[in-house]
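Side project, low priority. Logging it here so it doesn't get lost.
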Amino acid sequence: MRAALLLASALLLAGCGLGERRVTDIGDTFCANRLRTAVAHLPPPAPGQAERLLAAGFSAEAIETAEAIGVLDRMQVLIEAERRPGNGVPVILARQGVTDRVLLALLDVQATLATIDCEGERADQLRGQLQRNEARRARNLGLAGILIGASTAALTGGLSLAGSTAAGDTVGIIGGSTEAAVASMLLFGGGDGLLRTRANLLAEIHRQPAQSDLFPPTVWRYLTRRDAPGEANIAEEIVAEWRAAGLLEGAGEEDPLFQPEARLSIEQLERRDAMLDLTEARIALMSRDLRQLLEEVTRRPTPLRAR
C-alpha cells in the first residue's frame, strides 16, 4: 500500500513538472506591418554607361554600387553637366539628384536592418518565454526527484528495520524506476513555441526570386547582382556562410525556419538568430559602399565658367 502511495505521489509531482509546458505563440503583426513597402523596380543600366563613368574618373566599386541603387543615369547627367559651359548650377542640380538617391538607399539599408532587428527581438521574446517555462519545469522535476529519493530511502529503511526485506526491495525498485523516469523527463523534455513569420527574410534570401516584395529594390539588387557572369552574388555568399556554420537543416526548403509559421525549439531559435546576424552584417556593409560613392560624387569640382 505504501509503495502504491509512493508511486502515485511521484507521478503527481512529475506531472506538475510537465504541466509547466505552456503553449507559446508569437505573431508578426508589428514587424510585418512596417516591412511592406510600395516596390518600385529600378531601371536597368544602359549599354556603355559603366564604361563612360569609369573614363570620367569614378572607381569600379562606386559604379557597381551606383548600378545597384539605379543611379547610373543620374551620374551620366552629372558628367555631361560638368562638360557644358555655364555657372555651375546644372552641375550642382545634377549632383543633388545623385546624392538624393544615395540618401534614399541609405535609408533603405537602415529600414532593412531595423526590420531584421525586429525579427530578432521577436525570436528573443519567444526564446525567453520558452526558457522560463523550461526553468519552471526543471525546478519542479528536480524537486520531484529529491522527494522521490528521500521517500524511497525512508520507506526502504523502515521496511528493512521492520524485517520486511522483500517489501523494502520492491519499494526500492519502484522508487528507483520513478526517479529514472523523472530524470528522463528532465533530460529529454523540451518546449517549443509557434513563431509566425509571413514576411520571411531568411526564406527570401534562400530562394532569391528575381524581384523581392520584402526587401527594398536597392538592397535586393545589391544582394543579388553579380560582378561577373558565374560569380556568386552576396545573397549566395550569405547562404554559403549559413551552411558552413552548420545553420541549415537538410536541403533547406523544408527547414522550419523558412516556413510562414512553425513550432520552434530554443535551439532552432538560436540558429535563426545566428542566421539573421550574418545577414544583418552583410547588408550593413552596403552603407560603406554607399559612402564611397557619395564621397566620389561630392569631391568632384564644380566648374565655374562664364558664359
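Brief comment: DSSP finds eleven helices and three strands in the chain.
Revisit when time allows.
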